[in-house]
């Protein structure tokens, strides 16, 4: 199994399946394709007739692209890893919230690109404030009695780490790096996410990268 990813400092979509696989203990090899500095991603895409985007999982000769498609495939192949919660009610909520990140939060993602190196304060736009408020609503929803009653023990959204945590992992870096505020529930979840050895490994590797992407660094005044 081989995972193709983008810059670890900037590529939020690459982080999602990478983190899910690491936390679940699913073994894989990885290749980083620095798409602003190399044509390797375009060549891979042309060879396999897939979009020139990361991440891509190569498995038994098949190419699987898009973060959600990769993680859904892994959830089917490794049911013992509990990448989705076992309870159907909680699983439905987790899937809905994961899909909302996949299709929404455009203002927050646009104004605040993931950048693991940043530590600053940037005033969010009105549209980004609405996205931050929506995060607070979602985190509160996971703590409603009907979901709390069926959660496994643990500090993550469904108790046990799952795909929905992986989908929001880059948001943790955005909130932390740009000095944003969401809620106490979000802060506690962020602390648990940051404590994961896999997240610490990603952060270490991101800080070691030599590549810089000026349009992303400019948001934090790093360019």
From TrEMBL:
Taxonomy, superkingdom: Bacteria
Keyword Repeat annotated: no
Listed GO biological process terms: glutathione metabolic process; L-phenylalanine catabolic process
Keywords attached to this entry: Transferase
GO MF annotation list: glutathione transferase activity; maleylacetoacetate isomerase activity
SUPFAM superfamilies according to UniProt: GST C-terminal domain-like, Thioredoxin-like
Residues annotated as domain GST N-terminal: 1-82
Claim: Transferase is one of the keywords in the record: yes
Protein name in UniProt: Glutathione S-transferase
